[in-house]
Request: fold
Amino acid sequence: MILYLIRHGQSANNLLGEQVTSADGTFNNAAYETYMSTRVADPALTPVGEEQAQQLAKFLCEARPKHRSSYDDPPEDELRGTEVINRLGISRIFCSPMLRTMQTAQPAAQALGINPELWVDVHEHGGIFDNQSADRSPVGRPGMTRSQIETRFPGYVIGNAVGEAGWWSGGEEDRPTCDGRAIRVAARLQEMAGELGDQRIAIVTHGTFMDSLVSTIVGRLPGHGFHFSHYNTGITRIDYTQSWRDKTPLLLIRYTNRVDHLLPELIT
Reply:
């Protein structure tokens, strides 16, 4: 199995985080307090994020891998003049039920003719919450309901984890719980590799959760001392394959945080 982990496009909260930094670009305690008191629970994509999602869709349609999974994807000059859609051969797209990931997945899903599947466990660290209470403490919100998702994202495979009461019932999820989810998802991906064989799948997810998940996949306990960073719509490719020597399971990290589908002004 070949896995493409993709961070969502720029969200309103991402933009807010950039706007509250100090003049020298430092994200200090004052910036953090402003951010936390102003952020929204389930932000939408910004216009930049929407454009990033469109460019991601174009890349996923046109990019072409080598014939064997043991080789990397080719440079852009090999793609010119091709007309075949879905050059990467992606067969399934998963995303979290957060608005920004569903929005990011939509252009690619429409272009590739794939119905995205919601996977609650790949949501962002913290869950759905804001700090709009009287004392600015975190308040959990339910997230989009099943009916809202069906209306706004027709064709998405929702599953039983999202109902008419939404899907999030906690307050603000702490980092250890997020890391525990990453361990659970990593284990499920290993199972899927055995089930899906040579299939290629994509998961549209979130920056902090991607850090925890990639750390887990490579055998390092997730935490604050080490970080896999991803720009908005940055792509990481991981191959679940086997050693040519003795056919034992082998993980290959082909690349991380690939953003060559974006113009410089769209990298956020």
Remarks:
- Residues 234 and 267 are 9 Å apart (CA to CA).
- Confidence is low (pLDDT under 50) at residues 66-70.
- The beta strands are 2-7, 90-95, 117-118, 129-130, 139-140, 200-205, 235-242, 249-258.
- The chain has one domain: 2-10+45-266.
